[in-house]
């Protein structure tokens, strides 16, 4: 991955922090709405499934598209380059963490590690297809606990007209008995909807049938709301340069052997390459000393550790005052 560089940001996801809302909030849109179900419409269009999200994208620009990560990784170079060439924006969806967390909670962090490896494959594949300006983003975070949930962490089930009951939030209206939650109107959350939204306070959970209780999301903790945005791009050749080296001035040369001190001004890194010099005393094209070949490749952050003293021996009895 040394050919790439990345910058990270940390915006806040939508609330409630769950997939059906968060995923479509990342699409271009004028309005998000919910009516008669928990499914979210984008500009009045059905957003369920990749095919419908492609339609939404292409309503903004015919050169926009989307696909699942497995389909993208199966493309060969010819197919991929043709696809990338014909599109200016491509969404690639990946859901391994959510799938594992909801199916087999104990293996959630194995899915996280696996996701890192898949993202590396995707970045390399995009590069092979001549893609640029890669943006990696999640639509929500999650809470995970190893230990069983304490009885005190469960909220009583709210009463009212409920259309979606989740471990961390409820969508509906005419709620009562909800002291364990914060209530938001649809307008406060930027959603066009007749419903209200209850978000469990702190790390509390609502009782629901089925599903796990160790892997949850949908609430308003930092772990659920703070999502990563990683901007990845391939390094340009001009971004990589040789390390800079300077000579510490000498005063007087009075012996045949002179220690010349050279200072490597910065540590080497992915963008700063080592450099090799041949070092000797020279006057008017004539070499006056032995020649030393030295490579400056130190990655140490401390400047004093990047100094090198190079002994140079004059030929015969020639000496020069500097």
Notes on the protein architecture:
This protein is an alpha+beta fold. The protein is built from 7 helices and 25 strands. The protein has helices at residues 19-25, 50-60, 69-74, 77-85, 96-103, 108-128, 222-225; strands at 4-9, 32-33, 41-42, 45-46, 64-68, 89-93, 134-137, 143-144, 154-155, 159-165, 169-176, 181-185, 196-200, 205-206, 215-216, 229-234, 241-242, 245-247, 257-264, 272-273, 275-279, 282-283, 286-287, 292-296, 307-313. The strands form 10 sheets. It has a 4-stranded antiparallel sheet with strand order 10-11-13-12, with no helix packed on it. A hairpin with a 2-residue loop joins strand 22 and strand 23. Helix 5 runs antiparallel to helix 6. The relative contact order is 0.14.
Main sheet summary: 4 strands, antiparallel
Number of strands: 25
Tell me the span between the first and last alpha carbons.
Answer: 47 Å
Low-confidence stretches: 317-322
Overall geometric form:
elongated
- Continuous helix count: 7
- Measured as a percent range, the helix fraction is 10-25%
Key descriptive features of the protein:
single chain, 322 residues, alpha+beta, 4-stranded antiparallel beta sheet, 3-stranded antiparallel beta sheet, 7 helices, 25 strands, 20% helix, disordered C terminus
Task: Annotate the secondary structure layout.
Blueprint (H helix, E strand, L loop, with lengths): L3 E6 L9 H7 L6 E2 L7 E2 L2 E2 L3 H11 L3 E5 H6 L2 H9 L3 E5 L2 H8 L4 H21 L5 E4 L5 E2 L9 E2 L3 E7 L3 E8 L4 E5 L10 E5 L4 E2 L8 E2 L5 H4 L3 E6 L6 E2 L2 E3 L9 E8 L7 E2 L1 E5 L2 E2 L2 E2 L4 E5 L10 E7 L9
Parallel strand pairs: 5-6, 9-14, 17-20
Antiparallel strand pairs: 1-16, 2-3, 3-4, 7-16, 8-15, 10-11, 11-13, 12-13, 18-19, 19-25, 21-24, 22-23
Helix pairs in contact: 5-6
């Amino acid at each position: 991955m040394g050919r790439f560089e990345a910058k990270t940001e940390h915006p806040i996801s939508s609330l409630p922090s769950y997939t059906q809302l968060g995923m479509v909030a990342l699409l271009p849109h004028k309005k998000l709405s919910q009516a008669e179900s928990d499914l979210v419409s984008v500009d009045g269009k059905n957003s369920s499934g990749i095919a419908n999200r492609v339609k939404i994208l292409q309503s903004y620009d015919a050169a926009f598209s989307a696909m699942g990560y497995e389909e993208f990784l199966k493309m060969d170079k010819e197919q991929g380059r043709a696809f990338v060439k014909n599109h200016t924006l491509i969404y690639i969806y990946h859901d391994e963490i959510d799938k594992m967390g909801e199916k087999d909670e104990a293996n959630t962090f194995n899915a996280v590690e696996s996701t890192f490896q898949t993202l590396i494959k995707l970045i390399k594949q995009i590069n092979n297809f001549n893609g640029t300006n890669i943006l990696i983003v999640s639509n929500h975070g999650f809470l995970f606990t190893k230990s069983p949930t304490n009885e005190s962490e469960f909220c009583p089930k709210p009463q009212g007209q409920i259309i979606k009951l989740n471990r961390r939030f409820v969508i509906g209206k005419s709620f009562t008995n909800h002291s364990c939650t914060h209530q938001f109107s649809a307008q406060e959350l930027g959603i066009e909807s007749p419903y209200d939204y209850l978000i469990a306070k702190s790390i509390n959970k609502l009782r629901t049938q089925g599903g796990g209780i160790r892997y949850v999301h949908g609430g308003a903790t930092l772990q659920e709301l703070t999502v990563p945005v990683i901007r990845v791009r391939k390094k340009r050749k001009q971004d990589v340069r040789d390390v800079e080296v300077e000579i510490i001035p000498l005063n007087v040369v009075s012996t045949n052997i002179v220690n010349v001190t050279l200072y490597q001004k910065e540590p080497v890194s992915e963008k700063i390459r080592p450099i090799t010099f041949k070092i000797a005393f020279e006057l008017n094209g004539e070499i006056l000393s032995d020649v030393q070949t030295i490579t400056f490749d130190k990655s140490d952050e401390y400047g004093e550790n990047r100094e090198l003293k190079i002994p140079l021996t004059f030929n015969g009895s020639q000496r020069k005052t500097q």
